[in-house]
Amino acid sequence: MPHSPTPRDSGNLPVLSAPPLIRLDAYVAEDGSTVVNGHLLEMGGMRPANEAILDAIAMFARTLGAPVAATVIDRPAQQVARLRVYPDGSSRTIAEEEDLPPGRERTAAEEEAFPPLARVERIIQHTQREELHAAFVLASALREHLSLRRGAEDELSLEARAIEAYIAYLRGDYMISTVLALTVARIRCRTDLNRAAPEVARATAAWQRLWDEGQVATRGQELLRMWERLSEEGLLHDPSHQAMAQAVRTRLERGSRYVEGPATAAAAALPAAPEPAAPEDRPLKPTRRGLRRFTRRPGRSAG
User: Fold this and answer.
1) In Å, how far are 152, 184, 251, 294 from 209, measured between CA atoms?
2) At residue 68, what are phi and psi to the nearest 5 degrees?
3) Which of 18, 91, 165, 221 has its CA 20 to 30 A from that of 230?
4) Residue 267: strand pairing partners
């Protein structure tokens, strides 16, 4: 008899009051785009993001016949909402201390059910079809949730941020791409200097497309410090990296808006596919009770 992931009582019926087994994740982007478990939701008309999320999660709860846990990163509200959603469509928000303990077994189960690599493949598919808005929102959702769950310096979190930076570059969002790529480079310079040069190169490629003089100067100074440190450590083996370092130095000395030359080849240094509008990551507020937009009484589900 196959094992059922749903808690059962002695009569083999779902235990509706049982604690959730798997924590789902959802994400609301700055523009209201909504992602649940790595899938972009079709909003349809003026349907609010919170209702779309609750309906999608309630569908999981009905399938399991048991409550479902969910973590919602709500960027417009800059909040993390932690939820319990029930098969009847009702939901309540909970405090952080009430949330499921992470634990290695639970984290492994969640990532087995909704593996990050499968989400990356979906992002790549959108990118290949030039559906760059969808790809960017999915990449942002993946990076935000991995950073929340594993920390910003985790390897998967860094890869997700690099993907997000690459898609921003393809979209022409060079400011966002620069900041995302710079964050990856900054972390690599602190934690694994031997792997930092390609990340600094990717950040430089995006920076070379900037036109705002203040951002060119501020970001350029940081890039120059990174290149100089890599040079001091004897880690600038690639001639193209040496040329990019010199291009940053030259542009800052001249104060020019755009430098031709090595910058053109820099785009090729951006990561291959597996590889908010805020310029910097804005910290999310601590979880608290009473986020009414994610609280719903029984019978309200539209699913």
Assistant:
1) 26, 18, 12, 40
2) -125, 135
3) 165
4) none
In sequence order, what E strands does the chain have? 23-28, 34-36, 39-40, 68-74, 79-85, 91-94
CA dihedral for 35, 41, 47, 51, sign (positive or negative): negative
Note whether 125 and 139 are within 8 A (CB): no
Q: Give the separation between CA 231 and CA 105, rounded to whole angstroms.
A: 43
Question: Which residues face 70 on adjacent strands?
Answer: 24, 83
CA distances (Å), origin 286, targets 76, 148, 190? 15, 12, 27
- The 10 Å CB-count burial string (b at 16+, else e) for 36-61 is bbbebbeeeeeeebbbbbbbbbbbbb
Block residue for tokens 């090729």: 268
Q: Are 247 and 227 in contact (CB under 8 A)?
A: no
* Average of per-residue pLDDT across 279-297: 66
Q: How confident is the model at residue 112 (pLDDT cuts 50, 70, 90)?
A: confident
Residue 96 CB partners (closer than 8 Å, separation 6+): 80, 82, 286, 287
The share of the chain scoring above pLDDT 90, in percent, equals 54
Q: Are the CB atoms for 246 and 230 separated by under 8 Å?
A: no
- pLDDT number for residue 113: 72
Residue 290 pLDDT > 80:
no
Q: What is the pLDDT of residue 267?
A: 39
The whole-angstrom separation of Cα 115 and Cα 118 is: 5
Reply yes or no on whether the pLDDT at 122 is more than 50: yes
| Cα–Cα distance measured from residue 26 to residue 34, given in angstroms and rounded to the nearest whole number | 7
